[in-house]
Each structure stands twice: as C-alpha cells, then as structure tokens.
Design goal:
- It is globular and about 45 Å long.
- 7% of the residues lie in helices and 49% in strands.
- It has a 6-stranded antiparallel beta barrel. It has a two-stranded antiparallel sheet with strand order 1-2.
- The protein is mainly beta.
- Strand 3 and strand 4 form a beta hairpin.
- It starts with a strand and ends with a strand.
C-alpha cells in the first residue's frame, strides 16, 4: 500500500507526519458499485485486462481555436496509474460499454491517477 505523508496540524500533536492512504481513498472512486465503469485495457504488448475507469464524455468549446462557433465531445477516462502498463501510452485501446476508444494522450497526475484522452475508433 502506497502511503503519502502530510504534516500533523493538530495544536497538541507532535510534529510527526500523518500517513495518507491514497490507495484506499482511490478504491472508493474506482469501485464499479460507486463511480467507476469496467473497461477492457489493451496495452501495445501483452493481453487485454479489465480495469476500472472514471469515464466522461466532456463537452468542449473549440471557439478559441476557430473563427466560427464549434463544439465537440471529448471522451476521457481516468484510471489508476498502477493499472496501466508502464503508466499507459498513446495508441493503446480501451473498450468501455462495447465502444472501442484509442488513447490519444496520457496525463499522469503524480498522485496515482492518469487521465486518458480518448478517440472513438
């Protein structure tokens, strides 16, 4: 279990760090009974595995990039970095609810979660 330490801010406490259980905290969000959806992750090498992701089809306004009003849907998934082979890579695929997506960009947050920008195949 990965633990991160934060300073103990209690007035009566000694200045010993308090452990944070980020893996335990993430387990709540990546639980399919709570927020997550199962996804089949296919790395560039190896077999396909089922992982849990937080999936979002975020609306995106492209007006800043175009001279006319344009908007689109930008599918994204967040996964535990540890569930992705070597942290994930562009070109790998995810199948979510029978739809196949190719990973376009991988954005690790340094705290155990990676955002995957997706493109429907």
């Amino acid at each position: 279990m990965k633990q991160h330490l934060l300073p103990n801010r209690s007035a009566n406490a000694q200045s010993l760090p308090m452990p944070l259980d980020l893996d335990g905290d993430l387990a709540v969000f990546f639980n399919t009974d709570e927020f997550a959806k199962p996804a089949t992750y296919q790395a560039k090498t190896g077999g396909a595995v089922t992982i849990q992701v937080l999936f979002d089809k975020a609306w995106m306004n492209l007006a800043d990039m175009a001279s006319v009003g344009v908007s689109t849907v930008n599918p994204m998934a967040r996964a535990k970095t540890a569930d992705l082979l070597d942290g994930g890579s562009a070109g790998e695929t995810l199948v979510i609810a029978s739809t196949t997506y190719q990973i376009r960009d991988v954005q690790p947050d340094g705290q155990g979660v990676t955002t995957l920008e997706l493109q429907k195949v």
